[in-house]
Amino acid sequence: MRKKSDAIILSEQILAQGQKKFGTDSHLWVTIALYHKSFTKNNMKLGEALRSIKQNIPSVIERWIVYALTHDMERENSQKGGSSSVGVAFRLRFDQGTKAHDLSKAYLTQAYSLLTRDNLDLERIMLFLDKAIIQERESRKVLEDLMKQYPSSVQLIRAYGALLRDIYRDDDDALAMFNVATSIEEDSAQLEGKGNGEDKQSIRSKDKQSIGGRSQSKMSNGVKSQGSNGTRKRKKKKYSSEQLNIHSVNKENLIPGFLQIVVVCMAVVIAVMIVTFILQNNNFNNCKIAVDQINCCTSIMVMFIDTYIYSKYLTLRYNIIDNPSIEDGVYFVPSLESIKKVLGVAKNQDIFDLFEGEDLSQTLTDNDVINNIANIGLDISKQYWKQDDERSQAYLYYMRANVPITAIEASKRLALQIAHNVKQSSIQSIIISAVLGILSLSIPVIVNIIQFMITVTKLKKGRQQIFLKLVKTSKYEYLLLKKRLDDIDKDSGDTEAQSIQLSGKDNALQVEENINKGIKNKKDKDDEDFDSLDDEDDKDQEEQENKEDQNQTTIGMNELGSGLYSGLIGNTNMNMNMMSEMNKTQQQQMMQLQMMQLQMKIQQQQEQQQQQQQDNENNEKEEDEEEEYDESDEEDSDTKRKKKEKKKKQKEEKNKSTESKGGKEKEENKEQIDKEKDLTNRVLQISSYIPISFYIRIFIGFALIIIMPVVFTVLSIVASLIVIQYNEAIFLSGYRSVILGTCQLCCIIIVQSQVTEILGVFPNFKVDIATNPVWNDISHFTTGKEIRVMLLEKAITFVTSLNQIVLYGSNINDDIVTGDWQIDQLNSPRTIKKGSQTQKIQYEPNEIFVNRDGDELLNHRVYSINGPYNGLEALFALFIQSAKILLETSEKAILDQNAPRPTLSLTAVQDMSSLLIYDLAV
């Protein structure tokens, strides 16, 4: 059936009619796909039919047919080496590129249409031009990528040539690419065999496209030269058939040294980040060491106050041994072994060795006192200690006199000085990191912003100049450019229709040979023309360019006439159907001829005006000569006078007419200048030269670049500030336990009073380094009850303020005043927060806080509590409440001699003692 041309023609006609009536029917497209698969062997049309099936909601069977045909087509393609480029990935990318090409052409056509109007919508014109550029870049990128992968794809080469022709108006390169595609098809046809009629039909259809593309490029050359330059210039150009891409243009470097600036800025930022990391790491290490030292200082203070308290328990235990009745109803007094064990811990060599490398001047004078007290506690824990010896009593006096006001205060000063030094060094590191971070980020950002603004300003001015040229260009030129694109679309449609009708004719082979001969002759002729142009001398070209302005219209007419004549001669061998299709092309060429005639008339009018001006000048010269001749004539007849007057009148009328014409021309020129100024101002006021998306991308880019170093620097600084703040909170927490021990010490002094008045035997002295509000002398050795009660009251107030500062924080500006100026100068952060570990320890119910092994097995560990209690805050409240009860009882005993005196068996005394021995012990 393939050999019967009538059947092929009938099939083509039936399918064409079916496409017009049932273009959305998937069954029809399945039939068309099977037809091309079985008869025409045209993979391009087969692929188009398969795509149409997918777009028209196919059934399950039709989808299976699509899958099978696609699989067969890809298998054939792989067997042929992939030269036909009909793979799925290729088709998707190719469709993407051609779609972008069509969109770019459509936007460009819209821009041309707007530019031909009297009232220009500059914003929309700029919008369409920007969209056309974006789509053109997308199409070019896709097609160039495909060209690298499929360099011998005929379909791709033609699409790339169409892009060059439609958007870039590079007709020479487009024509060359069409010729390359044709030559590739001819070579493939020769390899497959000259007798294969199906392949020749495909070649014939594609040759027609190449002829249409060549004719379009030939027409566009004339339009392009007429519309853009006004004169037709022939350019010397050497074309290489291997170079098919767009000629690269030297792009101006908008940001000089941009890469170098970015590299330097990146190196600076990285270096500063490394320095910041080193500084903050050193800061954290120093803070860690400082925390260990502060904890050791608080441990020393707690051990010293425990040494004092347990020395009192030791005396009480010896008294109980001598008089067991003292222990009736008393359960909190530790055993002798427990007392000696606690006193032996006072000399912790690891803690004392920690301060061997310190050179703090304010603590050097107190080191001997601290060591002596620790050694005394160690001696008391030994077996050879005798409580009644005079030397032992002297040691106890030395220890009890120096622990509250010397040893504890010295350790406090040491801890505060360590925290202060670490804070100062950390602040220095933070300042250095912050300054370096700000400089490393601000300077590159400022430099890049300046370069960016310069670039944007430069780019904006360039786009303004280009757009100003576009809007000032004659509308006639845009009409020609728009007509060029419209003609290309029409010619491509006509060429496709011609290829469908010529596919099954008996004389197809003859037409093909004629077309190939014509193409070959034309190609040879073009090559000879290019060679001859390369061999011309500079003088010949200059003469030719001088004559170009005068002969432009004639050359265009001759070329179009020759084109029409050759078209008519070439079409004589075609049948009536072919003649009807070619008549459309001739009509388009006639329209082109009419537009060129219109331009020729305009030029003729300009030449007539110039000739008229020359005639006027010649007439003026003749009149001047006649006047001179008349003046030299002696005869003064009436006829000559009349003639002279008549000539003067004519001259005056001519001058008036000339002046009126000149005035009109001046007014027209002035109006034209005003219009151009107004248009220029409107163009300069457009704000969309640089799209907003461009600024958004730049902003996002800067943010992504800067965000990491900024976050790193900020986090490191904030973390360092938090760490140095908690150093003071750690000290205050330990110092609170020391003041709790002071309260317990005052409680024991009140209950177990001195036998003899020591202050009368030994002189009282004050310690200047003691800043606590409780005492700074040895007034606790007095036998006066009022002084001991006053000491307990001060201790209760002091520990309550410390507990509030530890939990809720403080700074210098707060109203909380403890009475200790060293404590009041601290900036302690808030430690109790929602969900924090401090909140759980302070307020959540607990059964017991075990500080030493075996404490949970003791009876009467805390006497007033049975079962769980609500955290340390409940224990602290119980301790303060018991202290206040003891305080009230003591005050009543002082005021009333008959009132009961506080004793060891008092519940408040036993609660305070047991709490500090067990659950509140650090």
TrEMBL record:
Biased composition regions of type Polar residues, renumbered to the chain: 212-230
Chain intervals with Low complexity compositional bias: 603-616
Region (Disordered) residue spans: 189-242, 517-559, 603-673
Stated name of the protein: TmcB/TmcC TPR repeats domain-containing protein
Extent of Basic residues compositional bias: 640-649
Membrane-spanning residues: 258-279, 430-454, 694-724, 730-751
Pfam families from the UniProt entry: TPR_TmcB
Biased composition (Basic and acidic residues): 195-209, 650-673
Keywords for this protein: Membrane, Transmembrane, Transmembrane helix
InterPro entries: TPR_TmcB/C
Stretches with biased composition (Acidic residues): 526-546, 620-637
Keyword Kinase attached: no
